[in-house]
Structures are given as structure tokens and as C-alpha cells.
Amino acid sequence: MTDEEYYEFIQPYEDAKQMLLTRLDVLNHNLYGEASARPIHNIQCRIKKKQSIEEKLHRKGKEPTVMNAKDYLQDIAGVRVICYFVDDIYNLTEILKSQGDLIVIKERDYIGSPKPNGYRSYHVVVGVPVYCLDGMEYFPVEIQFRTMSMDFWASMEHRISYKKERTDKEQLRDELREYANMLVEIESRFEQYNETDHQQERISARTKGEPPL
Description:
A five-stranded mixed β-sheet has the order 1-2-5-4-3. The longest helix is centred in the N-terminal third of the chain and has 28 residues, at 3-30. It has helices at 3-30, 50-59, 66-72, 86-98, 148-161, 169-191, 200-207; strands at residues 40-47, 77-83, 103-109, 122-132, 135-147. The chain contains seven helices and five strands, in the order H-E-H-H-E-H-E-E-E-H-H-H. The N and C termini lie far apart (55 Å). A hairpin with a 2-residue loop joins strand 4 (122-132) and strand 5 (135-147). It is of the alpha+beta class. Helix 4 (86-98) runs parallel beside helix 7 (200-207).
């Protein structure tokens, strides 16, 4: 894959990412109404670099070509949404999945079912319609939803463990799971002050097309 091929290839993924960011910004302003706190603390985003695309394709046993990147990779465009509460994550994903022009490609709930080391997050890959002069095509964007405590844990785990050879992997995994459980407890204590719980019925009714109570 040449540099020229790469930059031409990623353009529609950049467009899909920007369109999704706009939707998230609108939801952040309107999800709970003007009187309530916004659900999103911050948003991070990226487009996978050429070297990362090639390395991932090699790991999959594929040639590092534009066509293989399009066919086998769904995380070229990535968005990480950091929320305040777990309810915010489920409310946002419920609304996004109800939008008729988005396609849910893949979904993983690591909040309800954490990984063995304690990793918690909600992953969803959505197909975003990108309109060009000759028509429309869906491009995948991977979204990771986390609370602030989930993001703190994941960042520290990445810093400590990522691509490092360690002799204490089992002990480290046990400790990381313990720290994750501590953060879940802290998060649940803050959750009692969450003023958006009463909005859940209104949001569920909206996604089902029913009039809010």
C-alpha cells in the first residue's frame, strides 16, 4: 500500500467518523433535555495509521492491500466516548442503534460481561452512510463507550501491560481485576447521585416510537 493509496483510501472513513461525531454532539446536547447534565465527558477519535493497518493485516495472514483493509478491518475509523455513568452508555447506544440510517455491524458488551482481567467497555461497530457523487456506501466506525473509571483502568492497564514480556502475568491479571472491582464499587457509589435515571423510560419510549409518558 503506497502513501498515496492510503490517503485516498481513508478519506471516506474520515467522512464517516466526522458524521458520527456530529451525531454524538447532538445527542450530548439533547439526550436528557436542557435541565439535565450532559452524558458525555469527552470524545477521542482517530484514523488508523498506514503502518498499523499493514501490521494488523499481516497478523490476520492477509496481504497489506487497500482491498484487504476494506474487506477485513472494521476499526480503521475509531471513536472513544467517555461518559459519566453506565446508564449514559446504555442510553446513548440505544438511541444510536435506533437510528434507521445506521447499520449495527458488531456489538460487544464488556460492561455486563467484563474480560477476565477486569476490562470493561461497550464496543459497537456501526456502518455510517457516506454519500458521494456516484452514490452511497456504508463505512464502519468502531465506537468504544467507557465511563471515566473504565477509561482510567484501561489506560493504566495499557501502560503497564501492553506488548511487554512479564514473568508475573497471572499475578498482574489478578491485581488488575481487583482494581477493576474497586472502581466498580466507587462508580456505583457515585451512581446514587445520577439524576438521569428518571429519563430511562422516556428514552426507551422514544426508541420504540411510543409517546413519552
